Amino acid sequence: MNRNRSLLYIPVFILGLASTNLFGQAKFSEDRSRFSADLKQVMDASQNQDAIKISQTFDGLWNGGSLSDKQKQQIYSILISMQKKRYRVNPNYMGYFDLYNNAVLIKGVKGVKLDSLIYVTSQVLENNPVALYQKYLDFLNVFLGQNRFYSTSFNRLNVQTTNFSIWYIDPKTAASQDAAPVEPAVSKVEKLNDASSDWATSFSEEAKPKGSTDVNMEDVLGSNETPVITLPSLTGPFIKISNATMTISTKSDSVTIRNVRGSGMAFNNVFVGDKGTFDWTYAGMNGSDVYAELDKYTMNVSKPELYAENVTFSYKGKIEKPIKGSFAFKALNKVDKSSNPYPSFASYSNKISLGNIGEGLSL
After folding, report:
1. Cβ(213)–Cβ(193) under 8 Å?
2. Separation CA 227–CA 185 (nearest Å)
3. From CA 207, how far away is CA 125, in angstroms rounded?
4. Element (H or E) spanning 344, and its range?
5. Is the pLDDT of residue 224 over 80?
6. Nearby residues of 63 by Cβ (< 8 Å), 6 or more positions away
7. Which end of the chain is more exposed for a tag (fewer CB within 10 A), N or C?
8. What pLDDT band is residue 230 in, cutting at 50, 70 and 90?
9. pLDDT score at 160
10. How far is residue 81's CA from residue 87's CA, in Å, rounded to a whole number?
11. 235 or 204, which is more confident?
């Protein structure tokens, strides 16, 4: 008799566990008025201290008066959509709440600019898989929270500007148009440096840049041809910046590009620029006298290097007027810069009018 009674309790106990898993899971209610309580419950259930801290900051933002009722409604609608897609606390919810923490509390985003951020976020969620959505959140959080387009323990691309905006172009629409390759090209001057560059100590993923062989120096320097630069189409979510200062940094190297204008794409880590000034301060020269004005160029923000064609090079007191040519810079993984070939410039023409190149010297 006792044996049968104990057997009777077993299925009841199992049913109790099943009820907890199926019906007791913490989640966000459709009722937005319950948000603060739901947020605490969901994040506490994760037992992730970073998630709990992020949620506490966001709850303060939510109830602090910085968000309009319409913005709250849109933000909450995106959150419910994430929940229906079965997104996780880590990293999805964490990245989503931190997006607004960084945008509003650190970067001071508000009004129309915040409306644009919310809209772009909704479009990325609606039109892309979770991996790309998370990549978008990570890219935006690095920019908004750290003033960077890229950041690892090995290298960083810092971006200082107050002039920025968030945009979105559906990748399916962009794919139907003719577009240039998104991988940044290697400049002609980089091809010339290929033979003497210390590739083993660079951060480049490739041993040599594509197309770096069989280059005739006379063909490069003696040609008057100005290359036609075709920039890749902007696609997916991207950040437009202007009047910016970008700094390429590694553990042993750092260089700054000023007056930068362009767009950083979140999905492929490509920056498409149409303006920038690189001076030769890095090489120990007067940056006001020796500098290159960048025109159209692309760069992979994850690599500490920059190549550009059709740049305008000035060397006051040495060259009578600015000249066009190829530019290259690569941060090398070595402290001694005495043998560093960068920054480098190669003119498209060997017909250059020189000023005073030094006492007792002629060319």
Report:
1. no
2. 12
3. 37
4. strand 344-347
5. no
6. 36
7. N
8. confident
9. 98
10. 9
11. 235
Tokens of 215: 């280059």
Question: What is the token pair recorded at 110?
Answer: 């508000």
3-state secondary structure of 206: coil
* Residue type present at position 148: R
Alpha helices in the chain (DSSP H): 2-23, 35-46, 49-62, 69-84, 94-100, 111-127, 130-146, 171-175, 188-193, 217-221
Angle at 253 between CA 148 and CA 288, to 5 degrees: 85
Two tokens, residue 58: 């966001």
Lowest average pLDDT, out of 153-157, 217-221, 230-234, 299-303, goes to: 217-221
Contact indicator for 14, 8 with CB cutoff of 8 Å: no
Strand partners, 169: 236
Largest CA distance in the chain: 116
Burial of 40: CB neighbours in 10 Å, binned 0-12, 13-18, 19+: middle
In Å, how far from its chain's centre is CA 232? 16
Q: Which two tokens stand for residue 198?
A: 């210390």
| One-letter amino acid for residue 124 of the chain | V
**Average pLDDT of the chain, as a whole number:** 82
Q: Look up residue 259 and give its two tokens.
A: 């007056």
Q: How far apart are CA 342 and CA 329, in angstroms?
A: 5
* Beta strands, E only, 210-343: 236-250, 254-265, 270-279, 290-294, 297-300, 305-315, 323-330
Task: Check whether 190 has a pLDDT greater than 80.
Answer: no
pLDDT per position as a tens digit, 74-132: 999 999 999 999 999 999 999 999 999 999 999 999 999 999 999 999 999 999 999 99
**Pairing state of beta strands 236-250 and 254-265?**
antiparallel
**What does the buried/exposed string (b/e) look like for 156-181 if buried means 16 or more CB atoms within 10 Å of the residue's CB?**
bbbbeeeebbbebbebeeeeeeeeee
Contact present, 312 and 323 (Cβ < 8 Å): yes
Q: In which element (H, E) is residue 164 found?
A: strand 164-169
Dihedral sign, Cα of residue 31, residue 36, residue 37, residue 38: positive
**Cβ neighbour number for residue 361 with a 10 Å cutoff:** 8
Report pLDDT for 218: 46
Element (H, E) at 361: none
